[in-house]
Amino acid sequence: MGMSGIAEMKICGDLHESRFPGYVRPARYGRANSDKGERRMKFCAIMSVIGFGAFFIFTVLAIFAPDDAPGALMADVVLAAIGFFAGIFSWLKVKRGTC
Known about the structure:
Blueprint: H1 5-19, H2 36-63, H3 70-96
């Protein structure tokens, strides 16, 4: 009777570790092996960039808005404020490491 595939892989893994003591296999990157904390930190960092980008874009739009469109000016100011607070809130969470 032959060994099952799982037992063969286990033996090969043990032999590899016994031949090269102290060898550490490199970490694999990707979604399947990534930590939830790392993904949350990346999400907060991306949200910080998007928030500050929205802040700068809508601030420029508010500065150059025509005088005869007060509704557009108000919308730009509100969206710029939302972008600023989203950016600063997520940046602070990244800075503190509590994301």
